[in-house]
Amino acid sequence: MRLVLRRPGITLLVALGLAAAAAVLGAGLFPRLSGGGFDDPASESSRARAMMSADLGLPEANFVLLVEAVQPGAGVDDPAVVAAGQQVQRRLAAEAGVQVLSSYWAGPAAPGSPLAGADHRAGLVVATVAGQDDARRQRVQQLADAFTADTPVVRVRTGGDAQADLDVNRQVKDDLARAEAIAVPLTLLLLILVFRSLVAALLPLLVGGLSMVVTFAALTGLTHVMDISVFTVNLVSALGLGLGIDYSLLMVSRFREELAVRADVAAAVTATLSTAGRTVLFSAATIIAALSAMAVFPLYFLRSMAYSGCVVVAVAAAGAVLVLPAVLMLLGRRVNSLRLGLRPPRVSHGGWWHRWARFVMRRPVLTALPVALLIGVLAAPLLGVSFGMPDDQVLPAGRSQARAVGDVIRTDFAADTATGIAVVLPAVPGSGQAARAAAISAYAEQLSRLDGVALVQTATGSFSGGKPSGAGRPQLSSGRTALVQILPQHGGYSTEAQNLVRSIRATIPATVGPALVGGQAAALIDVRASMAAKLPIAAAIVAVGAFVILFLFTGSVVVPVKALLVNALTIMGILGLMVWIFQEGHLSGVLGFTPLPLAITMPMLMFCVAFGLSMDYEAFLLGRIKENHDAGMPTGEAVAAGLGRTGQIVSAAGMLLAITFFAFASSEVSFIQMLGLGTGVAIVLDATLVRGVLVPALMVLMGRFNWWAPAFLRAAHRRFGISDGAGPPPVVLPRRPDPALARTVPAAGDAPKPRAGAHRK
After folding, report:
1. Helical H segments across 507-557, by residue range
2. How far is 621 from 615, CA to CA, in rounded Å?
């Protein structure tokens, strides 16, 4: 800190140099980001996929060519269409890094083949494209350019998971640019209205921009040691810009207040660092504690969100307490320059928020009950929540080739050949090859009788409805490992496919030995089980981290528990609202998404992000209330004074942060829309109804019990407790206190005498 105060110019030059280097390094981030990350690598379905690739050379299908007849009345069996389909199949098989797994035109026409559409006007060529991340995306783009065509005979389009990954990656880049184009101008306008100075308004944007640039560079480094999801850029952008602005708002506001009472700029910066700077650091610790809980899950989507979120929060805090003070030292009183004809804001430690708090606390039940009922109504749709995994349907219809092909397959094909169910059968020691082949055929025949099964394929034959229906696929056996491929009538992550997986896992006969069941539906079942197993650990991390920080602020056991419950219930309300919108389809016409089961990772991500941000504001408000209470105010007046001092800054900070998240509601990837809209609503709800109604109402109802703690914890707080101090001096207790507020707390024991050295200003 001394270097910042003594050599602010050098500090700023070093920071700008690091930012320039980070910009160069971070420019290569996007090609290194990974799609997916929604599977548990240790699950049964993941092990089945790995064995299919290693032992059979059959990685999961991720690329599809949809070949449709163009001429009226023509079908997939017409000679011209057959010739075109076979040519497309041969061309695709000849491509480097591509393995054709199945094709309608690979053999004689088979009636009822799942590779032909219901009206026989379209057929499929199913393949897998090798490679990882950007290399595979580049290859898929080359294939899409080479094979997408409209000829006089057929129309060819590309689809599958690999095409969807390419489309999503491209869409995320477009969404990021759009969100920043929305958020930055709106944020600047609001900052000008808050500060009434263009110079002061630009400082938070500077810190927010630096936070994003440095974090992108850090993520580029992380991609060399772990998979980082492409969707982390959305979280980094929202948190980096939003928290950089939030923290800078606190710092600049405090600095301007200090300048009003101090002649020396260095003294004003020092006071700002010791008060608002400390608040920023503990705010960052609160959010990091919540985000770190996602690291316990084995899905790298959530793990990379945890790591990237923690990094961007730490970088935003560092920018606010290291870089910004150097800028303030250089600007001094010029921080108020370029007022654009606006009057300087009046510093008020009471005002509307103080009067509102007094109104709420005179009628705590009447004011809190409607808010509680509103949260309950919002949470009600959670009773009908269902979960799925992201696929091409998260992309907008008409804007993605993968989505267009996926819609045709789901609508016109009897079985989903690209999202089937795989039963991998490792070798059984001591079993003869002929006997094993017979046992597998009998098992396949048994599977074909299950409800929802369209076709079962093995190395020796295919079965449908309990009867042989065609030749086998020799590539489904390596001599050691065998694969039974099941084509369901309802594929993907559908409820029917999940029920079918459960039936298959429950009826594996001993004659075929141990088996691993894989496929998309199996992966969803496994992920749900994996997340349920880790959820108690994640919840404990969030709860303990928030409890410790709030206890250090307040010295109370009751207040942190109350805050945890209120914030958790509030976020449940937001998640219920997301079910109502994104699962049930309300507002789908406005936002342009397809109603789907919630992506299974999104509720956890939203909970951690929203909970961390809400506890940030909770600590800020409760720290002020505790200071007032310790200075001699009764609980009611302490709450009113605390809300009066923090209400304006919390509401402004909340609005600025909400804007950065609301901007991502313009995304065309549905679960990114949900993250932006849900988190934005959570921030607004928290900064208004929760902080402005529930907190003061509950605190005045609980009276002196707010501050209860066991003796040993009170001793610990006296030694290790903290105070945010980020604001003006405590509001003077009125000479004639509001009788209603005074009655809320018994006189004895509620308002302790001021500590030695404490005084009222």
Report:
1. 520-554
2. 10
Q: What's the pLDDT tens digit per position in 491-513? A: 778 888 899 999 999 988 888 88
CA nearest to 357, candidates 65, 100, 651: 651
Q: Largest Cα–Cα distance of the chain, in whole Å?
A: 98
Q: For residue 446, what pLDDT is reported?
A: 92
How far apart CA 18 and CA 13 sit, in angstroms, is: 9
d(CA 86, CA 521): 31
- pLDDT at position 337 is 78
Class of domain 2-33+167-389+526-707: mainly alpha
Cα of 354 vs its chain's centroid, Å:
35
Residue with tokens 């548990």: 40
Alpha helix (H) residue ranges in 579-601: 588-591
Contact 401, 171 (CB under 8 A): no
Q: What torsion do the CA atoms of 162, 167, 173, 175 make, to the nearest 10 degrees?
A: -130
Structure token digits, residue 644: 């009066």
Q: Which of 8-12, 379-383, 552-556, 647-651 is most confident?
A: 379-383
Could you give the CA distance from residue 259 to residue 268 in angstroms, rounded to a whole number? 6
Q: Which residue spans within 367-444 are E strands per DSSP?
A: 387-388, 421-425
Report CA dihedral (259, 265, 266, 268) to the nearest 10 degrees.
0
Distance CA 225, CA 668 (A): 30
Domain 63-159 falls under CATH 3.30.1890 = no
β-bridge partners, 272: none
Band of the pLDDT at 739, cuts 50, 70, 90? low
Do the Cβ atoms of 98 and 63 come closer than 8 Å? yes
pLDDT digit string, tens, across residues 27-86: 888 888 887 788 899 999 999 988 988 888 777 788 999 999 999 989 999 999 999 999
Contact 310, 291 (CB under 8 A): yes
Of 631, 760, 669, nearest to 231 by C-alpha is 669
pLDDT at 670: 93
Cα gap 662→681, rounded to integer Å: 8
Residues 35 and 326: their CA atoms lie apart, in Å, by: 40
Residues 6+ apart with CB under 8 A from 752: 629, 630, 632
Instruction: Provide long-range contacts, Cβ within 8 A and 24+ apart, for 73-77.
Output: 74/121, 74/153, 75/119, 75/120, 75/121, 76/104, 76/105, 76/109, 76/116, 76/117, 76/120, 76/121, 76/122, 76/123, 77/109, 77/120
**Average pLDDT of the segment spanning 518-533:** 92
SS (H, E, C) 692-733: HHHHHHHHHHHHHHHHCCCHHHHHHHHHHCCCCCCCCCCCCC
Percent of the residues in the chain that have a pLDDT greater than 90, as a whole number: 38
Of 625, 632, 621, 629, which is closest to residue 654 (Cα–Cα)? Answer: 621
Mean pLDDT over 240-250 rounds to 86
Which residues are CB-contacts of 581 (< 8 A; sequence separation ≥ 6)? Answer: 587, 588, 591, 674, 677
Q: How far apart are CA 723 and CA 656, in angstroms?
A: 25
Q: Is the pLDDT of residue 752 over 90?
A: no
CA atoms of 536 and 266, how far apart (whole Å): 48
- Domain residues of the chain, as ranges? 2-33+167-389+526-707, 63-159, 427-514
Structure tokens belonging to residue 98: 């591509």
pTM of the model: 0.83
Distance CA 212, CA 274 (A): 25
* Contacting residues for 634 by C-beta, under 8 A, at least 6 apart: 737, 741, 742, 744, 745, 750, 751
- Pairwise pLDDT comparison (74 vs 434), residue with the higher score: 74
